[in-house]
Amino acid sequence: MSLPLLGLLGLLPLLLPAAARASAPPPAAPPPAASADIADSDCDGLTDAEEAHLGTDPNVVDSDGDGLLDGYEEKLLGTFPLAQDSDGDHLDDGLELRVLFTDPLAADTDGDGLTDDQEHRLIGSDPRLADTDGDGLSDSEEAALGTDPLRADTDGGGTGDGVEVRVDGTNPAVASDDLPDTLDSDHDGLSNDLEGLLGTRSDSVDSDGDGVDDPDELAAGTDPTAADTDGDGLTDYDEIGLGTDPRLVDTDHDGLPDEGEALGGLTDPLDADSDGDGLDDGIESVVLGTDPSLVDTDGDGLSDGEEHCDTSTDPLLIDTDGGGRSDSAEVHIDGTDPLDPADDLADTDGDGITDYAEGKLGTDPLKADSDGDGLDDSVELGITGTDPLVADTDGDGLSDGTEVDTTGTDPLVADTDGDGLSDGTEVNTTGTDPLVADTDGDGLSDRTEIETTGTDPLLADTDGDDLDDREEIDTTGTDPLLADTDGDGLSDGQELGTTGTDPLLADTDGDGLSDGQELDTTGTDPLLADTDRGGKDDGTELGEGRDPLDPSDDFDIVTISGQILGGCDGCATGGRPAGLLPGLLGLLGLVGLRRRRGR
């Protein structure tokens, strides 16, 4: 009876292989209090003991209700997990961090003299930019002057508020007194006066040399005088390319700066939980010490999130209680406590599966390899996915062990290369490669050659005529089992590659002589029925005893008296019969002689 493998996914991470366990000294069992030390009932990044010390609720992930986990606030941000508004600016920490992207520890994030709350709720300016409209006046100055911090030119007179106040001395609320401000040395759309106020260079469109032009930086809210606006180690240009926010040190709010995530290559600066194990990258890296790029850092079959939040096992230890069974085996197979070494179960045959579990599975607790296929039961369940109760899981005629250790074929697929022949047939019968659908590389699958064409799947050119089998079948139409399809004495490859004759016609030019005979015996042209162009085809000439290479003998000229005067000389080129004139002269001579005798 085949084992229902899909129902045994919990068995994949069992124990270390028997050999590894045999060579490693037994780990010391931790004290019973260890579970209490690492327990985090609400999975907020703080152990229950730490929450008791801080006064936070160990059963509530966000004790102050500000939208941030207690552990994130305490260990990564430095905000207060018992205060919704750590900086006292009347904005909750979670709102500041995840919506406004302001600093929850600074009441005035941009240092413009207005609190984040004033800018967000009252004025509408950007609490992350001291000068929201980029006119050279801070938002607080504009609030005091009565100008609009969201419009660079409040009065619409053509000159920005900052230039009017600091350079021209005009009234930024009156359009009629605006002075022309057109000098723009670097042609970047920002006047020299405005660049002087902003601290940018009037002789360069990209003052900070970060690859982003000054006007674009002002529009995006980045600092045109600093190549790395947020100071995270990545230039503004690099962040735009990566998709991270050049105004935020930590775009995904996972507690790790963008630079480390982007350059380290292990975590994603745009995904707070890069490995999807339920724990933010910062919690893993800084708090737990687990690998934020691996779902299961210790490889015991339980994700880091499961271990930290559900089982209270150590995500850095395969066997938290040191009792000899992996945490996953205890949780998913044995039903024992992974924090109590005393209840770890025996494994008589040392195959990595406890006797108790083998009883439930139907495998033999006294045999490491229950089906005798060369693979231990734990290997079949945990690594290969094969059935530990069936020696040949895919029924292809090869044992699972042979496929894994020798042939390299897939023990779960009867026909690994998909050529229509089972792996066992290819290895034991045909001698073809079970990993390559077309062993000889002739364009025909091994099965097609064996069952359909009858060609040799181990030879690309079965008949040895210098044409691959598939070429003969699909292109030339010749017989891949006959070197000389038309039986004319020339191989198919020779006819196609050298002579230019038709490999499907024994007599390409239809002169009654086979192509091979013409090339090898008569010396005539197998592509011309009348090689000498004398008027008769080569076969006829040979049949009459004439020379098919001599045009002069193709025809005989006979006199009235029956005398043969000669053949055709130059007929093929329009000449006259060579023997005609002498014959006529002779005939005239005879006529004259008779006339004289008659007298």
What does this protein structure show overall?
The chain has 599 residues and is an all-alpha fold. The chain is built from 25 helices and two strands. It has a two-stranded antiparallel ribbon. Helix 4 packs across helix 13. The N terminus and C terminus are likely disordered.
Number of strands: 2
| Biggest sheet overview | 2 strands, antiparallel
What multimeric state do the chains show?
single chain
Q: How far do the termini sit from each other?
A: 129 Å
Spatial order of the strands forming the largest sheet: 1-2
Structural class: mainly alpha
Average the pLDDT over all residues and give the rounded result. 87
Helix content estimate: 25-40%
State which percent range the strand residues make up: under 5%
Question: How many helices?
Answer: 25
Radius of gyration: 47 Å
- Uncertain parts: 1-34, 568-599
Overall geometry comes to flat
Write the H/E string, N to C: HHHHHHHHHHHHHHHHHHHHHHHHEEH
Keywords:
599 residues, mainly alpha, two-stranded antiparallel sheet, 25 helices, disordered N terminus, disordered C terminus
Brief overview:
This protein has helices spanning 18-23, 34-38, 48-54, 70-77, 93-100, 116-123, 139-145, 161-168, 192-198, 214-220, 236-242, 258-264, 281-288, 304-311, 327-334, 355-361, 377-384, 400-407, 423-430, 446-453, 469-476, 492-499, 515-522, 538-543, 580-598, and strands at residues 557-558, 564-566. By secondary structure, it is mainly α. Among the domains are: 1-29 and 321-376, no CATH class; 384-473, no CATH class; 492-546, no CATH class; 555-598, no CATH class.
